[in-house]
Design a protein that fits this description.
Helices cover 0% and strands 55% of the residues. It is mostly beta strands and 85 residues long. The chain has one domain: OB fold (Dihydrolipoamide Acetyltransferase, E2P). It starts with 8 loop residues before the first strand and ends with a strand. Keywords: Ribonucleoprotein, Ribosomal protein, RNA-binding, rRNA-binding. It holds the Pfam family Ribosomal_S17. This is Small ribosomal subunit protein uS17. One of the primary rRNA binding proteins, it binds specifically to the 5'-end of 16S ribosomal RNA. Part of the 30S ribosomal subunit.
Length: 85
């Protein structure tokens, strides 16, 4: 088995599943503004490979960094943590 411990893993919410074997996962981070001290939300959208088309819009998922799979896909689905009804 490959050593995957050094690869980044993040948790986010699926915002689109319209493509075949690809989902868009939005990951929300909060960081403190360096000068003003206020916490600012940052949202990043990751194109993610979903081999079995398991994830649906609204699901909470865990994704992992991987080798480039296409022009924009650099992440793959590890597991669906929470499904929406």
């Amino acid at each position: 088995m490959r050593n995957t411990s050094r690869r980044k893993r993040v948790i986010g919410v699926v915002s689109s599943d319209k493509m075949d074997k690809t989902i868009i996962v939005k990951v929300e981070r909060q960081r403190r503004h360096p000068r003003y001290g206020k916490y600012v939300k940052n949202v990043t959208a990751y194109r993610t490979h979903d081999e079995g088309n398991k994830a649906k819009v609204g699901d909470t998922v865990e994704i992992m960094e991987t080798r480039p799979l296409s022009k924009t896909k650099r992440w793959r689905l590890v597991r669906v943590l929470e499904e929406t009804a």
